[in-house]
Structures are given as structure tokens and as C-alpha cells.
Amino acid sequence: MQVVIAGGGVAGLTAALALARQGHRVQVVDRDDSPRPADVAGAAAWPRRGVAQFQQPHAFLARLFHELERGLPDVLDSLRAIGVPQVELVDGLRAMWCRRSTLEWVLRGTAEAEPGVAMVYAAVREVRVDGGAVTGVELADGRVLPADLVVDATGRRGRVSRPWLQEVVDSPADEVYTSRRYRLRPGASFGPVNRGVISVAEGDGYTLLVFPHDADVFTVCFTRLPDDPGLTGLRETAAFEAATRLVPLAATWTDADRAEPVSDVVVMGGLRNTFRELAGSAPLGLQPLADAVCTTNPHFGRGTSLAVSHALRLAGAVAAAPADARSWRAELDAWSRGELRAWFDDARRTDEARAAMWRAVRDGGGPAVGRPPAGPEVPHLLVLAAAGADRTVGRAVLRHMHLVDPPEALAEVRPRVADLLAAGWLPGRPVPGAAASAPPGTPSGAPGAPAAPPRRELVEALRPELGSVASTA
User: Fold this and answer.
1) Cystine design at 397: which of 41, 79, 355, 387 (Cβ 3.0–4.6 Å)?
2) What is the CA 194 to chain-centroid distance, rounded?
3) Average pLDDT of 216-238?
4) CB 342 within 8 Å of CB 370
5) Same domain for 193 and 51
6) How many Cβ atoms sit within 10 Å of the Cβ of residue 269?
7) Do 62 and 209 fall into the same domain?
8) Is residue 392 pLDDT above 90, yes or no?
């Protein structure tokens, strides 16, 4: 077949490689004509216009490792060859410490070397349709590329399939990311990692995340409400550095003897949870992928994992019935409305619960935790928080966070969390009478979930650096 893929990011490149290796002729159309850097070091400054999260912190989950191992094992080999660290988790699960820019640099290089893939640097104007099926795409410069399959991998705006997409859910993620990148000094090593691929310190009105990457680089990231005036000052370098000194986990990682900053403070906001479906009038042979269908808060790093999963499922559907566009549509729709929608709903419910808790703290109350009744009524956030208090819960939460088990699998450990609550445990406190238990996948000797100071202490620490900026809190 002739395949045109609009968008040269993770989803588009994955689909291109998988389809080309079935013998199809694939053209990847990307508006960004910035050349792939000569080496992976240059990828850190690669100006990928239109990819807002390209230089943001990135978690390479076990689900992503598994999907690539199954569908594109040479991509994993290339990542290992350039020194990307592999992380061993529980139950034989593996992940990597890898920047988004490194992953895309390897995918682009692999695609450029693939005989059946051609890169076309242009913008798609519209999809050509005849008799209810796609026939190709028209580019902004007037050229027409014939196609039996048109893949929309243009990201959250879904520019190519937008005329046939219908919004099902669109809600704010209610979280802003403020981050800065650091590099280890010669001879230094990473700090403690308590969640396998990231390290986390949960505050009562914010979260501190540390993302280890490849090439001795890591990112420190504070997440907060978009409408929290007391923490908006984190975007200022002096305030950000003051905050890293106050949170013990961040202070350990960013100690001047361990690391030095290599970027400015970067803010990412305006995040939304969106889920779309193709209307019944959509032409056969048109298939939106990844963010064109589903976007969620990147807090848990699910985007690239689900993008690769989506792309490989499209390739699998085509391989199973190469001439049956109707079957491709049916299989991809079933996966989107099933597993993908389940992960979307899980992320959205988590966002809503976290935002409600943080707003209660911002408005002068305490975290809305309480002690819920036993059984399945235990709130989702409490189950996640219990990962550091009990190894069985920790194992289940780790498998959940890495998209290995379906969201409903967490129901199996809710009664166990209820027992912890009945024994007097609350988030941020040890289980009375029990020894501390680090989550599975934690390197030997590393602590469990490190404590983070209350929001009010963080706000007070920012005031001297910001003067009147933080005084409105």
C-alpha cells in the first residue's frame, strides 16, 4: 500500500517503521524541517517546533519498553548503544532513564535509514476522499500524495482528521509544571530514586518530581495548581532554587557538589484531558493516532507509551487484513474505546481528586484525606499514596503506574489499604508498629517516599526571593 503519515513525532515514526517493514511504501509528512542533529548530544537543543513537551521531563515506562521490545527491538538496541541506562523493576519488568529528545532522535535516525520510509517536510492542507475512502493528501504547496492509508499523528490538535473528529471529553488537567534540567559533575552519581524511573516527594499542595535521564542529565520538576498564587513564583530562577533547597529530595539531587543546572526554568501549563472519536462519516483509510485521539496530564509519563502502543496496534491491524480498511477501523476503535479510554478515565479521575485536595490546602484547610470506610470505597489517591507503606500495595501501584496491569487491577489491594488506614496510617506517616517498606523497584539502600514540607512552608521560603510577587498568597 501507499501510506501517508502526517506528523513525525513518536507515534508517526513508530507507525512508519512498523508499516514499512510490512512492505508498504510510507511517506512521513512533517511541518518541522529542522534537521536531525548529528549526535545525541545535539538532540538536547533540537528545536522541534510544535512539540511543546519535547524538552520537558519524560518517563520511559515499562509499557513503552515492552512495546518497543515486541515491535521495534532495534530501537531499544540503538538506545542501549548510545548509553541509555536500563532499569530493572519487579516481575522482570524493565524500563529506561531516557530523555524524550533522545528517544525521538533514535526513532528519526532509524526511520531515515529505513528503505521503505521517505521524509517529506511540508504541511498537510487536507485529506483527499473519494467514494467514502481516502485517496491521498494535498500539501500546502499544492502537491498531492496518493495514499490508501492516511495516519494523523499531528498531536493534540489533530489537524488532519479534525473535520471528522468529535469531542467526547475535554476537561482541564489542573496542573502546571515548572522544571529545570541539571547535569552531574564529573565522578558524581544520581541521587535516590524511589519509584523506579522517577523519584517523588509528595507535598500537601504540590509535588516534587525528579526524572533521571541518559547522559548524566536529570530534571527537577515542581507541579502545582494553575490557580495557586503562592506558588506561581516558582517560575523565577531564584525562587525555584530556593524551593529545591527546602525539599530534601531536591536538595540531595541538586547539591552543588553533585550537579549543575544546564537550562533555564521552564513552565508548561494549559494542559487538558481530551478524548475524541471518529464520526461515522469519517472516510475509511483515515486513522488518527495518539494525542489526536487522547491527551492526558503528563504527570505519570503515559503519553509516549500509549502513542507507541496505538501505532503498533494500527500496524498489527493492517498486517492482519492488508486490504480491509473497515477492519482496521473496527480494531482501532475497539482498542481506543476499551483500553485507551480506561487509562484516560483513570488519569482524569486522579487529576480531579488531586486538584480538590490541593485546593483545600490552598484555601486554608488540610488535605482532604480522612479515614474512608474499608473495602472498595478507599479513594484512588490513597491507594497510590500507600505504595511506600506496604510492599504488596507498592508492587500493584508500580505495575499500574507503568501501564502493565489494567486500571481496575488496583481494586485488589484496596482492602489492604483500608487495613493500613484502620491501623492508623495516613499519607506521609509510617504504619504504626511496622518497619518502613520501600516500594518495589527501589534501588538498595534508597529511602521510600521522602517527605516534602507543607505548602505553607514552601510559600514562605519563596517570599524573600520574590518580594511582593508571593505576598498575595
Assistant:
1) 387
2) 18
3) 95
4) no
5) no
6) 12
7) no
8) yes
